[in-house]
Amino acid sequence: MKNKLYLILLYSFFLIGPAITQSIPINYSDCLTGKITSPSQIIVYTLPNVEIGDSIIVRVSSLQISSISPCVKMYFPGNIIPDTRGCATNSQNKEIVYFATSKGTYTITVEDNVHFFTGEFKIYVERTSMPVGAINIKCGIPVVSKFDCHPEMLVWNFGAMPNSLIAINATGSPVSACIIVRDHLGKIVASDVGIHTNATLSFNTTSTYECYSVFVFDYNSHTTENVTLTVASIIGGCTSVNIESNLNKSSFCTGENITLTAMIPTTIPNATYSWTGPKNFKSNKKTININNAMPGQSGTYTVIVDDPTNCSSSDSVSIVINNRPTIIPSVDPVKAMVCAGDSIKLNVNSNATIPIYIWNGPNEYLSSIQSPLILVPDTSKSGRWEYLVTVTDDSTHCSSTDTISVQINTKPSANITSPATGVICKGETLLLNVETNTSANSFSWIGPNLFTSIIQNPSITNVDNSNQGNYFVTVTDTNGCHRNDTVDVSIEEIVLQAIPINDGIIASASGGARPYTYTLFPGGQTDTTGVFTKLNPGIYTISVSDKFNCNDSITLNIVVGTVNPKTEWSLSISPNPSNGLFQILRKENNKKELHLTVFDAYGKMITSFIINNELKTLDLSNQSNGVYMIRISDGDKVGAMKVSIVK
C-alpha cells in the first residue's frame, strides 16, 4: 500500500510538477539549511532571474554521518520533466552543474532518493559564469575567508592582463582546499582538486583581457576553518586600478585644479567607472576634475571599475585641500610714493604657520625676508614699480601671492653754475645761481655768516672773509623730491706792497692766486715780476691782478735817489732790520743839514726830521712789520735808504 501511494505521488509530481507544500526562494551564492523529516517530504527551492547561458552549480551536502544523501532535481521553466542527475549517486556531497537554456525561474527540489533519507542538509547555488557572490581581489594581496556553509564555494574574481602567467595558492586547514579557475563564460581553465591542504596551480592567460573566477571549496565539504588565497602574477599582472593625481600628491591648496584618473594597465572593453566622494560626489568618468578646489572637498575619493564580465577593481585616495595663507602686503611710506635716492620698506603680514617669503621686483630684485628695505637708485626714472610677494606656508606647501606698487619720482636736478670757479674777490658781489630741469620748484640756500635765501639766484654785495665757505642749495619739486648741491666759495684778497729803489720800484703781491700781473701807471707798463726801473721821480700808481682777476693798487710818491747816502754823507743806519728802533749815524764833517722823510711801503709819510753831524734815534716801534723807505736830501742832492721792522 505504501509503495502504491508513493508511485501515485511520484506520477503526479512528474505530470504536474512537484507538490509545493513549501517553496523557499534561493539566489545565487546562497547557502541554505534544510531538513527532511519524512521520506515523502519534498522541499522546493525557486531560483529566480536565471539568464540563458547561465551555468548553475548546485551543491548539496548531508549533515548526517552517513553515506545516504538526498535526491536533487532541477526543473527548467516550462518543463515538467526534471534533470535528475542529482539523484544518480548516493554520495554524502553532491555537485551538479546545469546549463540554462531558457530565461526565468528555475525550480530545485530536494527529496528522499528512495533510500529513505531524513535529516538536515545544506544547499548552495552559484553560477560558474560571472558568479554573483564573487569577491574581487588584487594580485599579490592574500585574502582570508571562511566557509560558513558546508557545500559552499568561496569565489573570487580578478582581471588579468593579456599573455600573463598567473599563480594561485589556496591553503585550508585542517582539511583539503580545492581550486577551480573559470573564465567569464564558466569554462574551466585550470584546477587543483586533490585531497591536500595546500592547493597550487598556475596558468597562462589569453591574448586579450579576461575576467577569471577562482572557486575554492573543501574536497569533503566539512571544513569550517579559514582559507587563505593568494593570486600572484609571474609574468604580466592583474588589472588592478590605481588612482593617479595630475600633481602626484595628496595634499592640495585652495583654488588648484585637481585631476584624478583611474589608471588600469591594460584596456578593458566596455569598462564602467563609478566614483564616489565627499558631499555626495559621484561620477561615471574615467577621469574626474575638481576645479578651483575648496577645503570642503577634502576627503576620500573611491573609484570602482567594472567590466561587463563581472570583474571589478577599486582604489581610494584621501586628499586634503588646505586653505592658502592670507597675506596683506604694505609699504612705508604709506602713500606708496618715494623719490629716487630714497628708501622703500616693504612688509607682508600673513597667517601662515611656517611662512616662507619671496619678494620679486624691478631690476631683478629678490628678497626672502618679511620686511626688506630697498634703496631706490638716485638715477631712477619716474614710474610705478611693481613688487610681487609670495608667502608659502611650509606646513601645507600652499602659497598666496599679491602685488604692491610704488610710485617712483625722479629727483629734480640742482646744478650751481655761479660762481663758476668758486672764487670771488673781496669787495665784489657774490652771485649765486642754481639751474634745475623742473618747474614749480622751491629753493633753500644756507651759507656762512648765517646766510639764508629762498630765491633761486640770490646775491651778496661787498663780500669779505666772513662770506667765505660752503653754500648749500636744496631744490624741491611739487612731488616733494629734492636734490642738493654745494659750492665752496673762496674770498680772494690780494695785497700789494711797493718799495722804491734808487731808480725805480719793486712791487710785491700776496694772497690771491698766482700768477700775478703788475701794471705801472702812468705808461701802462706791465710786468710779472713787479720790478720797474729807470723811473723819473714822481707819483706812480701800481696795480696787480691774479688769475681770478682779483686786484689791488698802490699810489706812491717815488723818491728816486741820485746818490748813495753811505758814500755821499757817510750815513749809516743800524740795526737793520730791527724791532722799530734804529740808530742813524752821520760821520761826515759837513755843515749841510740832512732832511730825512720816512715813508711806508704804500708811500704814506710816517715822519720827517733833520740830522747834522750827530747820532740820531729813529723810533718806528709803533709801526707794523714791513719795509720803510727813508728819503734823504741836503738841498742839492737826493738819496734813499731802506729799513725793515721785524718784531
Q: Explain this structure to me?
A:
The chain has 647 residues and is an all-beta fold. Strands 1-3-8-5-6 form a five-stranded mixed β-sheet, with no helix packed on it. A five-stranded mixed β-sheet has the order 10-12-17-14-15, with no helix packed on it. The radius of gyration is 64 Å and the shape is rod-shaped.
Give the structure's gist in a few sentences.
The chain has 647 residues and is mostly beta strands.
Major sheet: order of its strands?
A: 1-3-8-5-6
Backbone shape? rod-shaped
User: In angstroms, what separates the terminal alpha carbons?
Assistant: 180 Å
Question: What is the tally of helical segments?
Answer: 2
Q: Supply Rg.
A: 64 Å
Helical amount? under 10%
Oligomer status: single chain
The unreliable regions are 1-20
Profile the largest sheet.
Answer: 5 strands, mixed
Q: What's the β-strand tally?
A: 57
Structural class based on helices, strands and sheet pairing: mainly beta
Strand content: over 45%
Whole-number mean pLDDT: 87
